[in-house]
Amino acid sequence: MTAEAPSRVQGQHRPGPLQGVRVLDLTRALAGPFCGTLLGDLGADVVKIETSAVGERSRKLEPSTSGQSLYALAVNRNKRGLVLDLRSEEGKAVLRDLIATSDVLVENFRPGVMERMGFGWDVVHAINERLIMARISGFGSDGPYASRPGLDMIGQAMSGIMHLTGDPNGPPTMAGVYMCDYTTGIYATLGIVSALYARQATGRGQVVEASLIDTALPMLHGTIADLLINGRSAERMGNRDRHTSPANTFRTSDGHWIMLLAGNQQMWERLARLIGKPELIDDPRYLTSPLRNEHVEDVESFAAEWIGAHPVEEVIEAMAKAAIPCAKCATVDDVVTDPNLLARGRIVYVDQPSGASVPVANTAVTLSDTPTSIRRGLPNPGQHSAEVLTEWLGYEADKIGTLAQKNIVYLGEDAARK
Fold first, then answer.
1. Which of 45, 99, 285, 389 is deepest in the core (most CB within 10 A)?
2. What is the 3-state secondary structure (H, E, C) of the chain?
3. Superfamily of chain region 22-219+336-417
4. What is the pLDDT of residues 140-191, one digit of tens each?
5. Which residues are catalytic?
6. What fold is seen in the domain 257-328?
């Protein structure tokens, strides 16, 4: 990187909008932990509960730094760590105490697991009628697929997203990021915040449910209606837009790829003038967007010829001056040195318990009076066990020590070395 954005985990932070909200995070992998991270970004006190001293499996995924998975670091900030043996009755008793004083419980086990553990909705609601229980799964809690394991790429496949992604002559292609996982985490967070708002009026909690498949469907946009109403089944179109042209990737003279979208009549006319072909504006073949789509090969060839004769920065600058949406197809190398992102503090360094300082994407939403913030990195397993049991439950040191001796709770590496 050409410059390092300052870490935001040090110094004072103004209270976030969810300050005072207590969240039990019983999740692992990505969608669930990301939901917990978003709640933490908003100021909630999020406690990540793990069941062993080594933590959840995603802590071991590569790549890593200082023995910590960068995958786990990215979706587990702003949490405190507590290790609790949930197979033992004493451990379950501690969890019941935590539930009694919590506002939110987030879990992403397969449907039925929490019930078998003795913590289904009826049970937790009886313990704490104000508790909001967020349940994240692959396919929802009912229906014939409820018990199936769900992962992001499975959600992309079953939702139709993969069928619509990739080259028309190639295979269905998954997105380069875990879009279903992240979207599900966002929808779950929206549901939780909505339930917290509703609780102000009712005094009661409720179940919030989000699944990979359900949150993927809205991303199909109008294709569902187009099929059921008009009988048109959407197919892969590569990088072309379905509704207008030119809208595609084009190669510049210096070998870079750019994305161009001249999405309305005004943009098309400005593009025609920019590329030195103003006569296209009045050409009857290209007068409207539907007509341009009918002649998409011609329309794209006009843009490709001009773009292919100019270097990428010249293309982007010219398009910007003409108010035509255009951007370089950036590599990750480009992203981490992007002057706009760095100037706005979109990449920040977060200090981790290991001592490493790890760059991550900053919080995506800003609030003027109750700002989001990054206050801590991924906790070590059990790092805050004693702290949480004392603050949340008022347990005395002797009781915590006894639980630790029985391996009901783990107090972290520092305590283990003493």
1. 389
2. CCCCCCCCCCCCCCCCCCCCCEEEEECCCCHHHHHHHHHHHCCCEEEEEECCCCCCHHHHCCCEECCEEHHHHHCCCCEEEEEECCCCHHHHHHHHHHHHCCCEEEECCCCCHHHHHCCCHHHHHHHCCCCEEEEEECCCCCCCCCCCCCCHHHHHHHCCCCCCCCCCCCCCCCCCCCHHHHHHHHHHHHHHHHHHHHHHHHCCCCEEEEEHHHHHHHHHCCHHHHHHHHCCCCCCCCCCCCCCCCEEEEECCCCCEEEEECCCHHHHHHHHHHCCCHHHHHCHHHCCHHHHHHCHHHHHHHHHHHHCCCCHHHHHHHHHHCCCCEEECCCHHHHHCCHHHHHCCCEEEEECCCCCEEEEECCCCCCCCCCCCCCCCCCCCCCCHHHHHHHHHCCCHHHHHHHHHCCCEECCHHHHHC
3. Crotonobetainyl-coa:carnitine coa-transferase; domain 1 (3.40.50.10540)
4. 999 999 999 999 999 999 999 999 999 999 999 999 999 999 999 999 999 9
5. 181
6. formyl-coa transferase, domain 3 (3.30.1540)
